[in-house]
Give the backbone structure.
Amino acid sequence: MNRSGALNTGQPDAPPVQRLCPVCNSNQFQAYAQKKDLKLVHCGACSMVYANPVQISYASGDYYNTSGAGYYLSPAKLESDYAPVRFERELKIFRGHCRSGTVLDVGCSSGAFLYQLKQRFGDCYEVIGTDASGPALDYAESRGVKVVRGDFLEQKFAGQTFDAVTFWAVLEHVAEPKVFLEHAASLLKPGGRCFVLVPNLHSLASRILGTRYRYVYPQHLNYFTRSTLSRLASEQFSIRQACSTHFNPMVIWSDWRGGGREITDNERADLLKRTTAYKQSRLLKPIKALYRSSELLLGSLGLADNITLVLSKGEGRISAPTPAD
């Protein structure tokens, strides 16, 4: 077993995996969209959009330990991930709900979020990362981030419990996100926080680009709106905050011009590197102010690129008001 909760067959030519709805387990669905071999369906019971069927390497998580590892460890991706601006939104949200304690980052990749957390706030936190990709964990360790190897769903972390568990851009990649949240809840202390960030199916980029959007691709198995993500999370947690964050107009422009062609890993990493450089440039400060205003406006309308939920174990529901999906 591995990060998807699916059995690792070890057979690259195994038939695609058929799925039930990852939110409500219904088997009633209709075709939603198709992009080359990627087929998206719409659940008739809860409106969740998800890939069905999916290749075994994505359903099992093997992709991230083999052919996918090169992208996450490419120089451009690492430089961007470890730039001070990379996790500024996530850190702001995180610090608003967890000022100290033990932190588990699930799907930590190269360890950049935990590295930034320790660099900025030092002894306030004890951190551990885990991921399906062994090479990424090797790199995280080289930067001083403590890691635990093995399937997250089977890992007990030596009986340790946590003040916070984070899923930054993870649940869209896994075949059974509900099981991941269930296990996270079992690892949290009473009142602990779980942080979830996923792409927003109802973002401005998604509405403009449709399947031309680069984030409609085989590695993404789940396509959440705020309502479907909230329904998934509310089975285990109370929702403390819900917001829509991030906006990258360069992606919209690039994907619009590209007409939906396949984006290579090198192109993804290079655009991320350029975007990061623009954010750090002092010469672009006036433009950055306009960009930030645009992002805040889109966020207030629920149209920014991502959805972020802050979840609580064992406390009453407090949800920030945002537009309905």
Observations:
- Residues 1-12, 316-325 have pLDDT under 50 and may be disordered.
- The chain has one domain: 57-312.
- The CA atoms of residues 1 and 154 lie 8 Å apart.
- The beta strands are 29-35, 38-43, 49-51, 101-106, 125-130, 162-168, 188-199, 222-223, 238-245, 306-312.
